[in-house]
Every structure is written in C-alpha cells, then in structure tokens.
C-alpha cells in the first residue's frame, strides 16, 4: 500500500480468539493421543514379554516330556560273538569275531551304540523342529500333536484352581488386597481368558477397582472394561449365575454418570440379569439383596424420573417398598447377618411403611454387625441419621 499506510490485522479479534481456542483444542488432543500411544506401547511390550516367556516355558516342558517318553533301550555289551547284543542290519550273513563290521553285513554292539546315540540326537532334533513349527503355526495352540491333552488339561486346571482361590481370598481382603487381586487376574488373562470361572472373577475385580477409585473417568473405564468381558462370556455361558450377577452390577456402575433415560434403561438390564441369576442360583443371598435395592430405588423414583419413564417407556418398571422389604427379609432368611447395609435397608423399609417399632428393632440389629465394606460405612451414616430422627 505504501510506506505511509497503516497496517491492518489479517484477522479480527474474535477470529483470533476462535483460532486460539481451536489450536488449544488440537494441542490437547495431540497430548492425549501421545499419552494413549505410550500406554499402548508399554502394554504391547509387556504382552510380548509374557508371550515369549510362556512359549519358552512350554518348549522346555515339551522337550522334557519328550525325553521322558522316548527312553532308549540300553543293551548289555558282551564279548561273545553269539550274544544277543548284536544288532542286525542285514537279512543274511555269518557272524564274525572281529570288533568292527562282520563279513555278512552285521554290526557289532560297539558300532551299534554309536549309531543309536546319533539316531537319538537326530530324533530329538526332529521333535524340536516339529515343536517350533507347531508354535509358529498357531501361537495360541501350544500343545504338540503327540502331546497327551489330559496331562496339559490337568496342569492348567491345577494352576487355575490355585489362581481362583488366591483371587477369592484377595477379594475378601482390604483395599490393598483387592488391588493386588485385580492385578493378579489381569496378569493371567492371556492364559485363562477362555475359562468361565476366571472371567467372572476378573469382572468382579473390575467392580472392586470401580469402588476403590474416586476419579469419574477411571471408574467408568473399569466398569466398561468389566462389562465388555462379560458381554462375550454371556454369549458362551448364558447359564452362569455369576456372569449374570456381575454383568448386572457393572451395568449399574457404567450408568452412574449417565443421563436419566440411560440410567433407567440400565435399570431394565439390571433387573433382567438379576432375575436370570436368581433362577439359576435361588439360594444366593447376595442376589436377593441386589434385587431388594433395585426395588427400593424404583419405589423412590423422583418426580422428574417418573415423568421421564412415562414418556420414554411403554411399560415403566414398577416396584414397591413392600417388594423391597420381602427381598431383604429373604436375605436374612438365607444368611442371618449377611450385611450391615441389608439390615439398615430393612429398617428403612419399615420406617417408610409406618412401622416404627420394627424399624427401631432392625436399627438395633444393624448396629450389632461390623462394617466390612464401603457400603456398610455409608449405611452406618444413614443409621445415625435415622436414630437422630
């Protein structure tokens, strides 16, 4: 324009702000992507180490089993030319007293032992090559064709039994134990991902981590991961009460931060799977406790939630406080003193139904039980509030 012209900005101020906001958004996404790539890289490295270790252990075990199965038959050496230690390599001929090779084409015991040892080495080399080819052909099927499947199955079952026993013990422990239990199952997922008893315990461990974590994003990640594990498991083991139970619980955990319609939809799924679990395992007090909680929550839906249900669903869920009470009493019938939270719920049900004396009785019974879980600790606070009223 000329030396005396006043320069004008290429972008207006609002356009500059918008551009800065977009750049900031892009930078945040790039940082998050870099973090995810780094986590993926670490996971792949860890997985590769596990696979290499398992393949190496399997190859060593296969060679040991092969050597035990192919024990060479040792022959006693004899100086007699008529001894049975002579190994025939021809169909006819006469025996000679020479130490080397006979005139008729026979080989003496001395030459035979060297030949046998060489043959055994070649046989072992062939077995090793066959094993390597088997591993290359299918990395997930590490059992050689001539391996006895019963031996492998028994070893896997023994290891799985010990693992499940340890996982149950850690699940019943404190916060640190449950974190260790989750990591233990996660480390063994590659070996036992196809086992029903392993999968529902892994899902249960996801629930434990959901309870132990305060961050909303991490909680959702744990719940979603456990739910995805059981979605696949239920396609194969629809008759597993434990799979239905923990799938229902995880559905509720996933929907905790969702909108009202999604929470209500999750409630339908929860009820469906708890009913299936009860049909498969009718003597489990935990299932009736979960159903009682569902009934109590449905009976106390707020005005907005009820309007949403009526608008979105043709058949809204229905349950009363009396329904909830019957389920909680069923828990006490199957396992007296099952949980502190369960007895607090019974007291709340009687309070809502106007039976003050029964409510006080169950408040006293609830006070007798220790608080073993986070839910029990929250129930203790409710108990104190009820006593103040």
UniProtKB/TrEMBL annotation:
Regions crossing the membrane: none
One of the record's GO molecular function terms: microtubule binding
Domain of life: Eukaryota
Record-linked InterPro entries: RMD1-3_a_helical_rpt (IPR049039), TPR-like_helical_dom_sf (IPR011990)
Key words of the record: Coiled coil, Cytoplasm, Cytoskeleton, Membrane, Mitochondrion, Mitochondrion outer membrane, Nucleus, Transmembrane, Transmembrane helix
Protein family according to the UniProt entry: Belongs to the RMDN family.
Protein name per the record: Regulator of microtubule dynamics protein 3
Organism name: Rhabdornis inornatus
